[in-house]
Amino acid sequence: MDLRKRKRLISAFCFFIFVLSLLVVKLWFIQVRDGEEYAVMTLEQVSSYVALEEACRGQILDRNLAPITGEIIEERVVVFPALIDDKDAVLQILSGILETPREVLTGLISDIPCYLPLKLSPEQAVAIKERDLKGVTVLPICFRYGDRPLAAQVVGHLGKISSMDEFALLSGCSKKLYRYGDLVGKSGLEAFYEQELKGIRPERAVRVFYDAGGNLLNGSVLSVEEDVKDSSRQDLVLTIDARIQSIVEDVMDKEIPNGAVVVMEAGTGDLLAMAGRPAYHPAQVEDYLQPGEEERFFDRCTALYPPGSIFKIVVAAAALEEGVISPENQFTCNGANEKLIHCWQDVGHGSITFLQAFAKSCNPVFARVSLSLGAQKIIEYAKRLGLDNQTVIGYPISPDRRQDLTLIAAPNNLVNSSVGQGPVLATPVQVTSMVNAIVND
Q: Is 130 exposed, middle or buried (0-12, 13-18, 19+ CB in 10 A)?
């Protein structure tokens, strides 16, 4: 064989190997990477089903891997309209057992398999099972939000895909399978981690199968699928401790109708609880869409407020660190007669050390110390203590541009800023983090 023929054979062989490699890669994509999605699509072509879980999503868990959404399992009536022989008779029977007008049930049951959004008493569940109605059964459904979900403003809520634009956006930025009407994250962590939480198939479902001609297989037998693995969904683990969060919310419900509470683990800085009031129930969002109710969705833990006397920690840290004063330095407080700023105690504190002024939150003393320090030092230490950083790792926050520490140096702002007023703003999370830094020396 001459050299030219040998080169042609080698070239042809390399080309064949190249094409074969492309085919192997393509098959890997179809069978391995996207295999589960194609399997789901195939299954949906030959069957109808009702998911036995409200949302096909990963769980949101606390630091001890307990569901923070308060998931509950309740029995519901599951209906496969295509299997029902006499719809009028079935509606009449269900209306009597469920004590629900027939017109309401007619509106709930269309041509698509579904479960009825009606709570069942144990007696009603037993009565429906005993009637053994064709195309109707009672099965347990897992609901994402229980009677008392925790950290509602942090976790967020779900809602159905409500427009083709939203559907196109979700489908376009994800390899996962979306269907119009799917429950998706609308706010908080549910929305921020939508792509990680979203599943492509229910792990529990009841299903009927059809042949190629669209005829039911096995008559009208309902096949219940359990413990199906949906590897596309992921769980989200938070630093929140559900036990601590629950205690905080109990106290707020009794004592704090408006406000925020943040609990942080000293040392690590892990957020153990974040709660705001008033709040909302994520399974009943439509109940809070009236004018004036918008604040229920507002996360107060990451919102800006004047910190008040808490900001004196910054001034004290800067003054002591820079050697401007010592804890034993003496001052005089004349209360309401002070020219720079009045003290909260009208009669004043009289002769007082800086240590005592800090303990008693004496405004005139901190005003004088801030003038000795200068605005730039206070700004520097406020930044070093994190009061210019609104971010929380792993949690979506849109920076609020109203927080601008440089305004402390603007004319006539320094004295008011020294007591946490004027242009000074901070979030409850920032304040908690600042105190944690002091606690950890």
A: exposed
Backbone φ and ψ for 182, nearest 5 degrees, come out as -60, 150
Tell me which DSSP letter residue 423 carries.
T
Q: What is the pLDDT of residues 101-111, one digit of tens each?
A: 989 998 888 88
* Beta strands 350-353; 330-333: pairing state: antiparallel
- Residue where the block lists tokens 């996360």: 299
Within 13 Å, how many C-alpha atoms sit on residue 249's CB side? 23
Pairing of strands 47-51, 205-209: antiparallel
Count of residues in the chain: 441
Neighbours of 276 (CB within 10 A): 27
Q: Which two tokens stand for residue 292?
A: 């004036």
Token pair 């407020």 is at which residue? 305
* Closest C-alpha to 309, from 350, 366, 260: 366
- Residue 111 is classified by DSSP as S
* Average predicted confidence (pLDDT) for the chain: 88
Cα(231)–Cα(201) distance, rounded to whole angstroms?
A: 9
Report which of 372, 368, 406, 369 is spatially closest to residue 387, judged by C-alpha positions: 406
Q: What are phi and psi of 75, to 5 degrees?
A: -80, 140
Q: How many CB atoms lie within 10 A of CB 348?
A: 18
Residues of the chain scoring pLDDT < 70: 1-3, 5-7, 25-47, 211-220
